Amino acid sequence: MLLSAGVTTGWHLAQVAQRAFGDEICLHLCDTNPRELVPAAALGGAFHRVLPLADPAYEQQILDLLQENHIDVLIPLIDQDLFTWAADAPALQALGVRSTAPLRHTAELLSDKKAMAEFLQAHGLPTPPLVAPEAMEQGRAYVEKREVGCGSIGLRTVVGGEGYTPHPGSILQEKCDGGDTEITAEIFNAQGKLRVFCRERVATKSGVCTKMRPLDVPEIEDYIRTLTGLLPCPAAFCAQFMQHRGRWNLIDCNLRIGAGTAMASAAGFQLVRAFWANLCDQPVPDAWLQPDPTVKAVLRVYQEVVIR
Known about the structure:
CATH topology of the largest domain: D-amino Acid Aminotransferase, Chain A, domain 1
CATH class of the largest domain: Alpha Beta
Shape: globular
CATH superfamily of the largest domain: ATP-grasp fold, B domain
Strand order of the largest sheet: 12-11-8-9-10-13
Structural class: alpha+beta
Radius of gyration: 19 Å
Largest sheet: 6 strands, antiparallel
């Protein structure tokens, strides 16, 4: 069962499930929007309109749907849900439902940006240092971001000495000094394999990549290898990097498949196909995770979807 199925990620997951695993997967879609406003609903399958995450009755509604529909696997697609539906959530274990979210401890360390920065620094992994507002230097640029959030929502650049007022629930970090290049690492981490595909975010809209360029960055691959050795991480997830102080710094970690992951699939790194195969206890051939070396870029365009 897909939660937040109306997001871009839900469309790609449903497409691949239908095309490659139609005989193995019976997909249920959940979203706060009505069915006619959820693109993935056009691909068929059961649809459940659910309450907003903040509604006190939301958790029980999801648990009821899981039990009533005999769901085997729950797939959260937004960061806030990773905590509620962690892989070791007692409520899911009581129902025998598997979650693709990380363990709660991992989510607490890597989905919360303040905790993530402190954890990475403690283990010698580069990440922009946290800065207290009173320690801001005159004229120096900093970045404010939400402690838990996605899609660059709440992100803003602030300058020391210009009357900064912190937003509640936000952190302040040094602004990366290595230019505007941002790289997303798409990661498969299961069946004894660790495969990393790097793509430069050439253009974005509302925080989601719309143009990408494949890159080979061994330093980032080594970083991910170290990180997954320190913490149990999900089978499929993504992480963002920028250069700061001469090294690639981890600036965000999405412990789930991302909205731009479909672009990696288009370049031959079939992370979503591997994700579904792993859930179905099928082997993932190495060929699925070998990007096409002839691909120079992947561009995202709109597609018209009709819901009946």
